[in-house]
Amino acid sequence: MLFAALIERVVAWRRERVTLTELKRLNARDLADIGINGSEIRKIARAAARA
User: Fold this and answer.
1) What is the pLDDT of residue 51?
2) What is the Cα–Cα distance from 10 to 19, expressed in whole angstroms?
3) pLDDT digits (tens, 9 = 90+) for 2-51
């Protein structure tokens, strides 16, 4: 049970990092096109990883 929870957290952390990296590659105009402000990137990546 503990091991499964640990694996789940690691997988979520990895998803967050991948999403964060992808969003950081976008310029301000591309982010605006999809309705994201640069200051929201971390919050959005975290929420996407937990979904």
Assistant:
1) 82
2) 14
3) 999 999 999 999 999 999 999 999 999 999 999 999 999 999 999 999 88
Question: CB-side exposure of 36: number of CA atoms within 13 Å?
Answer: 18
Domains in the chain: boundaries: 2-50
List of residues 6+ apart from 20 with CB closer than 8 A: 41, 42, 45
3-state secondary structure 4-50: HHHHHHHHHHHHHHHHHHHHHCCCHHHHHHCCCCHHHHHHHHHHHHH
Which amino acid type is present at position 43?
A: K
